[in-house]
Amino acid sequence: MAKDFLKGTKDSYDIIVIGSGLAGLTGANVLAKQGHSVLLLEHHYQLGGMATWFKRRGGHIFDISLHGFPVGMIKSCRKYWTPEIADSIVQLKGIRFENPQFSLRTSFTREDFTRIITEKFQIPYETVDQFFSYARGMNFYDDQSMTTRQLFEKFFPGRSDVVRLLMEPITYANGSTLEDPAITYGIVFSNFMSKGVFTFKGGTDALVLKMKDELERNGVDIRIRSLVEKVEVDAQRRVQAVHVNGKRIACRAVLSNSNIKSTIFNLVGAEHFDPAYVEEASAVRLNNSSCQVYIGLKPGEGFENCGDLLFHSEHEGFDIEAMLSRNVSSRTFSFYYPETRPGSDRWLIVSSTNANFKDWAELPEAEYEAEKKRLCETTLDCLDQYVPGVRDKIDWVEASTPRTFQHYTRHLQGASFGTKFEGLKVSQTLPEQIHGLYHAGSVGIIMSGWLGAVNYGVITSNEIDKALTPASAAV
Ligand SMILES: Cc1cc2nc3c(=O)[nH]c(=O)nc-3n(C[C@H](O)[C@H](O)[C@H](O)COP(=O)(O)OP(=O)(O)OC[C@H]3O[C@@H](n4cnc5c(N)ncnc54)[C@H](O)[C@@H]3O)c2cc1C
């Protein structure tokens, strides 16, 4: 008989969290600490969503999305998780750019970028300083009509090299383009520029297992391999229950960490929402997806002087279409040293590229496998210039595509970074449509990435707490 992953669950909880991405995990933790009973349901066999890892024979552990996040993670993890988690966050200092326009290394801080843009690109200090201050001052309530392209035109007209330096890493970090609102760029760029790029020492597995321990300490009932099929809503548009693995479990509120469009159209159903809201939600554009190649070296083999993150491109200038193309000309290499995972002696490389779901979705099986193989081969060809003789050092190589991301996280079209900007409003106004239904997870560019997801989990769980706690009890 199939194992019952819901054995022993209660008939009812205060809050059911659907999905264990960083927003779902954080939301569940905050709500449990506030004293609510919380059930966390995850369809996959491990927690973390996109913040995940996998193991392969020979002792290789590959991280999927641990490439870099802003310093703000330290504060958020200390406040909403544990000091132990916050203390494991360390800076990555070796960021590299290699492309036809320039070759440089940086610590990815405002200070170092200012030095590079003034000394190497010969832009006056005052202009650079004004740009950084302008970007830093941008916030959600600003005019949203200016695009990132217009922002760059304002400060660095005609300077495609400067635009590339400033934009390429952010496009990798959240899929944003020059046509997206400038505030999405300003907020994310300034978050990174405040102190540089950070990582979690110990790897994603160590982080997520520490989070799981903390959730259990705070009393969250965690269930994996539990696919939520439906959020039940009554005629007055109030959340009643969720249906998961064929079982109905009642609740007062739902925090969905599933993709915002799946939440509305697949889990609840368009018939429960105002037509105008349905129209708005239908128009929300998904962000792009990704491909990755995972390369594990033989024991005793390593690499020298590669840095931590290398933005490689063969394309003449910054070009989003080229970055998404199946004919890959841009890659971000993450180099993982044994120190990344204390106790391990393994050297690993993960190559990431942005990708369009449609380019991979409809390939017949044989062609799909051939394209994955081609991706591995062309990636190794490219990597050879940074790790000479890499093919002789390899123990394991495999690729993932947008189909892989869709399969494991159930994001529509394998969207790596949720939705474009307009998804944020649809996500935030969800509880105005259905009483007791909330969303936290990658939306609107600003709320994606590790830091955005964690912070959005906190914001939404505080709203749920406010709604569930009677005013008299909150005094
Ligand atoms: C290749 C790649 C590289 C990245 N690199 C970085 C990086 O270097 N730095 C950075 O900050 N960010 C990076 N990101 C982005 C970052 O990982 C994500 O933005 C973030 O982890 C998303 O968190 P989330 O809370 O939105 O949930 P997600 O990670 O999207 O998780 C949602 C969870 O919900 C579950 N779920 C969905 N539907 C259901 C259902 N019906 N029932 C049960 N469970 C369900 C899914 O299985 C999943 O576990 C990267 C992403 C990718 C794909």
Automatic annotation (TrEMBL):
Instruction: Show where the Amine oxidase domain sits.
Output: 22-369
Q: Which InterPro entries match?
A: Amino_oxidase, FAD/NAD-bd_sf
Q: Which domain of life is it from?
A: Bacteria
Entries under SUPFAM superfamilies matching the protein: FAD/NAD(P)-binding domain
Q: Which GO terms describe its molecular function?
A: oxidoreductase activity
Q: Give the family from UniProt.
A: Belongs to the carotenoid/retinoid oxidoreductase family.
Q: Supply the name of the protein.
A: Phytoene dehydrogenase-related protein
Organism of this sequence: Planctomicrobium piriforme
Q: What is the lineage of its organism?
A: Bacteria, Pseudomonadati, Planctomycetota, Planctomycetia, Planctomycetales
